[in-house]
Design brief:
By secondary structure, the protein is an alpha+beta fold. The chain is 24% helix and 10% strand. The protein has helices at 41-52, 85-88, 97-106; strands at 58-62, 74-79.
Length: 108
């Protein structure tokens, strides 16, 4: 998007075509927005986990902005065996996913 003169907080004009990457995986240049998610994403993800009968998952979702509630978010992919290491050492900061997984397993 930067090659098109846009940043993550920009809102393109309604008639503007914006080319996105074919993949949004972190190792391929995707952006980790975990730290800027609206608090409602937590219960939203928990409901998806409950629906699928799992305690650990990663959700790839499309939304207008991660700062808004997930009322209009679209789930693109659910990973029940997520690659958490990319989020632990992402460019945007670190997230102690390993501790969260261990606490989940042992109900800490």
């Amino acid at each position: 998007m930067t090659a098109q003169g846009l940043g993550l907080d920009d809102v393109p004009a309604a008639d503007r075509v914006v080319r996105l990457k074919r993949t949004a995986n972190l190792p391929k240049g995707g952006v980790d927005v975990t730290s800027s998610l609206h608090p409602d994403f937590g219960p939203w993800a928990a409901s998806v986990a409950e629906l699928l009968g799992t305690r650990i998952l990663a959700i790839d979702a499309l939304c207008v902005t991660p700062r808004d509630p997930p009322t209009a978010a679209t789930i693109l992919e659910v990973n029940t065996a997520p690659e958490w290491v990319h989020h632990t050492f992402s460019r945007e900061g670190t997230h102690d996913i390993a501790t969260r997984i261990l606490r989940s397993w042992f109900d800490l």
